[in-house]
Design brief:
Elements lengths: L1 E3 L7 E3 L3 E4 L4 E4 L2 E2 L7 E4 L2 E4 L13 E4 L4 E4 L8 E3 L4 E3 L3 E6 L4 H9 L1 H9 L13 H4 L3 E4 L2 H46 L7 E3 L7 E3 L3 E4 H4 E5 L15 E4 L12 E2 L5 E2 L1 H7 L9 E4 L3 H4 L3 E4 L4 E2 L3 E6 L5 H8 L18 H5 L2 E4 L2 H44 L9
Parallel strand pairs: 18-23, 19-22
Antiparallel strand pairs: 1-2, 3-13, 4-12, 5-8, 6-7, 8-11, 9-10, 9-12, 14-15, 16-25, 17-24, 18-20, 21-22, 21-24
Helix pairs in contact: 1-4, 4-10
């Protein structure tokens, strides 16, 4: 029998379960140690692991928090949501984490309970801050959150049940991810072959000095991108001008790159401006069919190349590329997807490139008749692959939702793990 727990995130629980505050179920471990004596650990969405090579290293090696095996560790910051888990190791972590020693919880049950989506949402609801990456939940507030406390033998049974069920789901998720990766490779290989070798024909080939082009048809033109297309910069887009959807010109921000349809076209109108506002901001209006990409930040390394559906402005984290006469926009779109972005990114903490660097990338261009033939062929073939990718993504979403729902139901007692 289930009864109301009095907590919205928990919902109903079995009548024999207790409801208690986190502060009554854990000891707050706040001991400062050195990473010379305690191995540095990383707190990730996959749990607690030996420190990753890619993790940011602190100069203060003596100012770290102690972690004991079995402790629960959670990142306080909302932009790291889901980075938590029970540590399988003794070690140390950054002071931005909260380290808790379970006193009334089986570690494996605590691992599932506090990594559940429902708890994560409740945890960050108690946070304070200005924006996502400055929003955090301190222990003084966390300790007041209500949580379910089943009997210890039932906690262990729930953890065992979830370990078994999640193994099956995780295996299915990995298979779907593998299928998605294989489809992405197939898509990229198809485009690479067509835009650098053309359609299968008996033509003479010549070597180039550009590794990503390799051999190309002898009659195709070679040259830097600036020979075939112009580039342009974006403009600053102050927040006070954002949010209007009823003006003439879409103003695309860098996150618009992730909102293109399966054909790579951006048609959203989340932010719009008038022509007068565009002039005031110094924002150039790029013609429909122009190609846009990121030029700063993590989005650059994702290699997202997109096409704009209508005349649009872009923000200063992006750049536009628009073809010259004799260049088919759709062919250029496919060709630009093959740019080795890693070679044109400036080193540093924040990845970046420039219009100049992109303009100097060596490209290749077939006659217009072949551009049309290649673009039409790729439109047909990639659309089939994109449909398979969309289906695969839907399956991944369903499996992820199933996993989240299963965890939330089990840790709050809504599944009979005893099989009675």
């Amino acid at each position: 029998m289930l009864v109301d727990s009095g907590s919205k995130w928990i919902g109903k629980v079995p009548t024999h379960w207790e409801i208690s505050k986190i502060g009554h179920c854990f000891n707050h471990r706040n001991e400062i140690v050195s990473d010379k004596g305690y191995e540095p650990l990383s707190v990730t969405k996959n749990g607690i692991l030996p420190q990753l090579e890619t993790a940011a290293k602190s100069d203060n090696s003596d100012g770290r928090k102690l972690i004991r095996r079995g402790d629960f560790v959670i990142n306080q910051r909302s932009d790291r949501k889901g980075s938590a888990g029970v540590s399988p190791l003794d070690g140390s972590c950054s002071v931005i984490y909260t380290v808790l020693e379970p006193t009334r919880y089986h570690p494996a049950y605590a691992h599932h309970l506090f990594r559940s989506t429902a708890f994560q949402e409740e945890f960050y609801r108690w946070g304070t801050g200005i924006v996502d990456d400055l929003w955090s939940t301190r222990y003084s507030l966390m300790r007041q959150i209500s949580c379910p406390v089943p009997p210890l033998d039932e906690q262990k049974a729930i953890a065992d049940f979830l370990d078994q069920q999640l193994l099956t789901i995780d295996n299915l998720i990995e298979k779907q991810k593998g299928l998605g990766a294989a489809l992405e490779r197939r898509r990229s290989s198809l485009i690479q072959r067509c835009v650098t070798k053309g359609m299968p024909k008996n033509v003479r080939m010549r070597k180039t000095n550009t590794f990503w082009l390799g051999e190309v048809p002898e009659h195709w033109q070679l040259g830097s991108l600036k020979r075939f297309a112009n580039t342009g910069a974006g403009a600053g887009f102050p927040i006070e001008f954002q949010g209007r959807t009823d003006e003439e010109i879409p103003f695309l921000k860098v996150n618009s790159l992730a909102k293109a349809d399966t054909t790579g076209i951006i048609s959203i109108r989340e932010d719009t401006v008038s022509r007068a506002t565009a002039r005031q901001l110094g924002a150039k209006i790029y013609p429909a069919g122009s190609i846009v990409m990121a030029k700063i930040g993590a989005a650059l390394l994702l290699g997202r190349v997109r096409t704009i559906f209508e005349n649009s402005c872009i923000d200063n984290n992006m750049m536009a590329i628009f073809p010259k006469t004799g260049v088919l926009p759709r062919f250029l779109y496919y060709l630009l997807q093959q740019i080795p972005f890693g070679l044109i990114v400036n080193p540093g903490a924040v990845p970046s490139t420039s219009e100049g660097a992109v303009s100097n990338v060596q490209m290749v261009l077939p006659p217009m008749t072949e551009q049309v033939e290649i673009a039409d062929y790729l439109d047909r073939e990639t659309s089939q692959i994109d449909r398979l990718l969309a289906t695969n993504e839907e399956m991944l979403d369903k499996l992820t939702e199933r996993k989240s729902a299963l965890i939330s139901a089990a840790v709050t007692g809504k599944i009979d793990v005893w099989g009675e």
